[in-house]
Amino acid sequence: MSKLLNDSISGLLNGDVRTKSNRIKGSGRYTKKPPEVMVKVSGFGYNNAHTANHFDYISRNGKLELEDETGLVYQDQHTIHQLAQDWNESDFQQRTRTRHSTHLILSMPYGTEPKAVKKAVRSFAKNTFSENHQYVFALHTDTNSPHVHLTIKNLGFDGRRLHVRKGLPQVWREQFACELERLGVAAEATPSLKKLKMTKQIDNRDHSTLRTVFKLSPFIIK
């Protein structure tokens, strides 16, 4: 085997394996740690008017595409307002502080292809909500981080309502990251440092309690 061929094989064996890329614009550098996804509950709509106003906001008053759970695209204010009217819940309008809709923001850091983010959100929303909920989403690229606003109608087709229980946003983060991974976009959804710190503190307290119990109890068999 020639020395040149030997060197080439050696380089392949010793180098980093680079299977994914976020196609960062203007940079050829490779980042070993995948970027963190963000899934945030940005707010709630409490009646049909709130939802209509939110549709105006995320569509920039009809200037941006608004896509629903069936794949239909809305891009003028009249049809967007009609969609909001179709979401009307007459049976619940008299209830105060009933959450009519849930508003999410799903984003990735600068350099991620915006179309990939939108495609990942489309798959995430379909897999997570389409069986029982209506929703719309719109891609925004007016900040350094491409992000999608996703609005879900809380009242499901089966009459049950969507409730954002504790821990659910983290589950959504992991699902969103998986959809990005399927598109070849490196993404991570690790729990927040605050949550990890709290878990560690709880573990330490539990261990401390156990040590105290074992120290004080005269009935421990050695």
Characterization of this structure:
This protein is an alpha+beta fold and 222 residues long. The chain has a single domain, classed as BirA Bifunctional Protein, domain 2. Helix content is 40%, strand content 15%. The protein is built from 6 helices and 6 strands; from the N terminus they run H-E-H-E-E-H-E-H-E-E-H-H. It has a 6-stranded antiparallel β-sheet. Strand 5 and strand 6 form a beta hairpin. Helix 2 runs antiparallel to helix 3 and helix 4 crosses helix 5. It is globular and about 50 Å long. The N and C termini lie far apart (65 Å). The relative contact order is 0.15.
Mean pLDDT: 78
Overall 3D form: globular
CATH class: Alpha Beta
Strand order of the largest sheet: 1-4-6-5-2-3
Tally of DSSP helical segments: 6
**Rg (CA only):** 24 Å
N-to-C span: 65 Å
What is the count of structural domains?
Answer: 1
**Largest sheet at a glance?**
6 strands, antiparallel
* Helix fraction by DSSP (H/I, runs of at least 4): 25-40%
CATH architecture descriptor name: 2-Layer Sandwich
- Report the structural category: alpha+beta
Low-confidence spans:
1-21, 23-31, 193-222
Give a nutshell description of this structure.
This protein has 222 residues and is an alpha+beta fold.
Features:
222 residues, alpha+beta, BirA Bifunctional Protein, domain 2, 6 helices, 40% helix, globular
